[in-house]
């Protein structure tokens, strides 16, 4: 039985979060897991932490970080001035996948979005993640749009 704790990430969680981000086929090539962490991670954490429309979640099980996601609340004019929740950087420790941790994380995130009055929750996922696509569809998400990205930083 899971005994999960959902909380706002603290600076001390940063190494565990970066490790989770690197713990898959795409992340291992994008993230830098060294001690100490590169300064860019600290700067990003500080920006997220001070923004009231950002929530960096860590999920613990018996004192170990087993999951993370970033939840962003976006005000907008479309849809009658509706707010959106944006869920990104979803990771569950590879050794813990299949234990419904991801589903619990999304239940938590959707509750937060409802509590903030969001009319819509959206996310992006890489085309190379078919398991994630099936997971999101099982949760009720629909692939209704085409997304485009433009990489402005050749070092990322």
UniProtKB/TrEMBL annotation:
InterPro entries reported for this sequence: Acyl_CoA_acyltransferase, Bact_Acetyltransf, GNAT_dom
CDD domains from the UniProt entry: NAT_SF
GO molecular function, a single term: acyltransferase activity, transferring groups other than amino-acyl groups
GO cellular component: ribosome
Annotated ranges, domain N-acetyltransferase: 4-156
Keywords associated with the record: Acyltransferase, Ribonucleoprotein, Ribosomal protein, Transferase
Entry keyword annotation includes Acyltransferase: yes
A matching Pfam family: Acetyltransf_1
Protein name from the UniProt record: Ribosomal protein S18 acetylase RimI
């Amino acid at each position: 039985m899971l005994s999960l704790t959902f909380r706002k990430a603290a600076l001390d969680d940063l190494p565990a979060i970066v490790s989770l981000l690197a713990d898959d086929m795409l992340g291992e090539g994008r993230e830098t897991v060294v001690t100490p962490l590169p300064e860019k991670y600290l700067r990003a954490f500080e920006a997220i932490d001070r923004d009231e429309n950002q929530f960096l979640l860590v999920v613990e099980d018996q004192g170990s970080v087993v999951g993370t996601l970033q939840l962003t609340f976006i005000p907008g004019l479309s849809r009658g001035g509706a707010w959106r929740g944006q869920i990104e950087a979803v990771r569950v420790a590879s050794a813990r996948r299949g234990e419904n941790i991801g589903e619990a994380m999304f239940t938590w995130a959707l509750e937060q979005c409802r509590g903030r009055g969001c009319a819509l929750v959206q996310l992006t996922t890489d085309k190379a993640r078919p398991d994630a696509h099936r997971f999101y569809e099982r949760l009720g998400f629909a692939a209704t749009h085409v997304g485009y990205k433009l990489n402005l930083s050749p070092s990322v």
